[in-house]
Each structure stands twice: as structure tokens, then as C-alpha cells.
């Protein structure tokens, strides 16, 4: 194990739940890795919708896991890319100086601790800010397609194709040999085409459930279509995987629709399901291989420095983000 003599660090700190104004830059103690952990000097961190949910504490059921009155971990962020600063005595896969990426709670800071099994060596062809936007969103997209049992030559519909998860889902589905249709707003159709989608649907003008096209697999990413609309767009034995949703009330949010889908699936031939992303670090090398062969490319909307994280969060909530946002310049 090797370590610097630094004992404090700059970080984004959150003491209570709320909107972006609850975030501030603070000087806090630098974490130290346990036996199976890695201390990462953070070069960039990714911002995703899940971080917003933890910041606001909504839906309220989320607080059972993250803290009732405020977040147990006062430093937000989970996506990370950086260099190994120190390793615990049980770590065997990484050494000081290695360039890594993965999942590290509290990544909006100069340093963050990650479990060894939640990290992988950074793709050689990506800059740190590009690598930082991959882990959570790409792992979620991969989990959604795996849950949907994707197969080559299937017709796949991606609802929310221009967002963080959607931008990876489109590329992964194409890499698996599917014919992909992406649903997005007018201003983002060019991005969805550039990601490799075979067809696009502008949801401000057309209803995917009214086109007459039927899909073997639908990945609904933070959309809000009714279950009846999803079913109309499916083949008789097709699968719909719901990965999120921003409606449904303050208590459980989009989970209401997901549980209804699971119950309905017991009585129909179509399969309506959802999943809880396990953030499996073991899948990161698979993503690395796809990235290094050019089959997946992160879509980076823009970057923000650490002291502008509140502005980054506000931009995220506008719905104008194309792909992902990265927080950069965390460590000199």
C-alpha cells in the first residue's frame, strides 16, 4: 500500500436533501481504503439521474437506503475515473498509478474509495472525462438488455435513446446484432442516428405505439408510457423492460408502474419486467473491450469543474443533455 501525506481534500458536500442549492464545496477528511478497497485520485466523475434522486431524496422510499433526514454519505457521485493512489492489503488487481474507472460512492471529490471489484482498468482510447461517464449508465443499459434477453436480428425499441443510459443501450443493442429504433425529441434525433440507430421516432410528433410497428424488445428508460401503450408496440410474445420513470408520486416514484407491469405479466403472453441494477464491476472489462474496438463511444454533452456542480445538476434537470455530463478537474 502506498499513500500521499494528504489528510484532507476538496469535495462537494450535502448536509440535507433538496435541490442543487444544497450542494457546496467543502474541505473534508480524505478517505482511506480498507483491506479490499482502492483509493482513487479522481480525475473526472460522471453525473447521472440517480445522483439527482439521492440529492433530492426522492422518491421518499429511497431514503430508507440512503438516510432518512439526509444522505449518510455527504459526498454525492458514483461514476469515477482516475488513478490509483493507494490500495488496501487485500487488493491484488491494481497497483498505485494504474488508470481505472468504475463505481466509487462519493466521487465528487479529489479522492474516493472504491471496492476492488467495482473497478476496471480504464479503456486506453478514452480520456478520463469520457471514461467517467461510462460505468453507471453503461452497466444499467447492459443489465436492461440482458434482462430483456436480447438476441441478434430482433427489433428493439429504445425509449429515451438520447440520455445517459439510452445512448449506451442503442450502441449495445447494435453491437448484439439487433435492429434498433430510438425514441427521442426533435433536437436529439441526430445524436440517436449517430449512435447507430436504424430508425428514429420523434416523440413530440409521433406515438411509437401508433405506428403499426411491433417490437420484440422495448427498453423504456425513465419514460412514462402507460403499460397499454407498451403492450400495443410489442409483438404477441415480446418483452418490455422498464428501467425507470419520473412519475408515480413522491413515495415510490416510477416503481408503481414497474410493480404493476410485473403483476400484469402473470396474466398475458407478453413479458413486462424491470430490474435493479447491481452495478456489477465484473461487466466493466466487457464494456472496455467494446469501447476499445469502437463499438461503444461515450456521448459527452459537456463538462463542469467541481465548484460548478450545482450548475451541472441544474443543466441535468432541463432535459437538454445529450448523453452524459462529466465533472472534471477534481484533482490537480
TrEMBL record:
Residues 18-327 form the Enoyl reductase (ER) domain. GO terms for molecular function: oxidoreductase activity; zinc ion binding. The lineage of its organism: Bacteria, Bacillati, Actinomycetota, Actinomycetes, Propionibacteriales. InterPro entries: ADH-like_N (IPR013154), ER (IPR020843), GroES-like_sf (IPR011032), NAD(P)-bd_dom_sf (IPR036291), Quin_OxRdtase/zeta-crystal_CS (IPR002364), YIM1/Zinc_Alcohol_DH_Fams (IPR050700). Pfam families: ADH_N, ADH_zinc_N_2. This is NADPH:quinone reductase-like Zn-dependent oxidoreductase.
Amino acid at each position: 500500500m502506498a499513500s500521499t501525506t494528504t489528510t484532507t481534500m476538496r469535495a462537494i458536500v450535502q448536509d440535507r436533501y433538496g435541490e442543487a442549492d444544497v450542494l457546496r464545496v467543502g474541505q473534508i477528511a480524505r478517505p482511506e481504503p480498507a483491506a479490499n478497497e482502492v483509493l482513487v485520485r479522481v480525475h473526472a466523475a460522471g453525473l447521472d439521474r440517480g445522483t439527482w434522486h439521492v440529492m433530492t431524496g426522492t422518491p421518499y422510499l429511497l431514503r430508507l437506503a440512503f438516510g432518512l433526514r439526509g444522505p449518510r454519505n455527504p459526498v454525492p457521485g458514483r461514476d469515477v475515473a482516475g488513478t490509483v493512489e493507494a490500495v488496501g492489503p487485500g487488493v491484488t488487481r491494481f497497483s498505485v498509478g494504474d488508470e481505472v474507472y468504475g463505481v466509487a460512492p462519493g466521487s465528487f471529490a479529489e479522492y474516493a474509495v472504491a471496492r476492488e471489484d467495482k473497478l476496471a482498468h480504464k479503456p486506453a482510447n478514452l480520456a478520463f472525462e469520457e471514461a467517467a461517464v461510462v460505468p453507471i449508465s453503461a452497466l444499467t443499459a447492459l443489465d436492461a438488455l440482458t434482462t430483456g434477453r436480447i438476441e441478434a436480428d430482433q427489433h428493439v425499441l429504445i425509449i429515451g435513446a438520447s440520455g445517459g443510459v439510452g445512448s449506451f443501450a442503442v450502441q449495445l443493442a447494435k453491437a448484439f446484432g439487433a435492429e434498433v429504433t430510438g425514441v427521442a425529441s426533435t433536437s436529439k434525433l441526430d445524436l440517436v442516428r449517430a449512435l447507430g440507430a436504424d430508425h428514429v421516432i420523434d416523440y413530440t410528433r409521433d406515438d411509437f405505439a401508433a405506428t403499426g410497428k411491433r417490437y420484440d424488445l422495448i427498453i423504456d428508460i425513465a419514460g412514462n408510457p402507460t403499460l397499454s401503450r407498451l403492450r400495443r408496440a410489442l409483438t404477441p410474445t415480446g418483452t418490455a423492460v422498464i428501467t425507470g420513470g419520473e412519475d408515480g408520486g413522491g413515495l415510490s416514484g416510477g416503481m408503481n408502474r414497474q410493480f404493476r407491469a410485473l403483476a400484469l405479466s402473470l396474466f398475458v403472453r407478453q413479458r413486462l419486467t424491470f430490474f435493479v441494477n447491481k452495478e456489477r464491476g465484473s461487466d466493466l472489462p466487457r464494456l472496455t473491450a467494446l469501447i476499445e474496438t469502437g463499438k461503444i463511444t461515450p456521448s459527452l454533452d459537456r463538462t463542469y469543474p467541481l465548484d460548478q456542480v450545482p450548475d451541472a445538476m441544474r443543466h441535468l434537470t432541463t432535459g437538454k443533455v445529450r448523453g452524459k455530463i462529466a465533472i472534471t478537474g477534481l484533482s490537480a
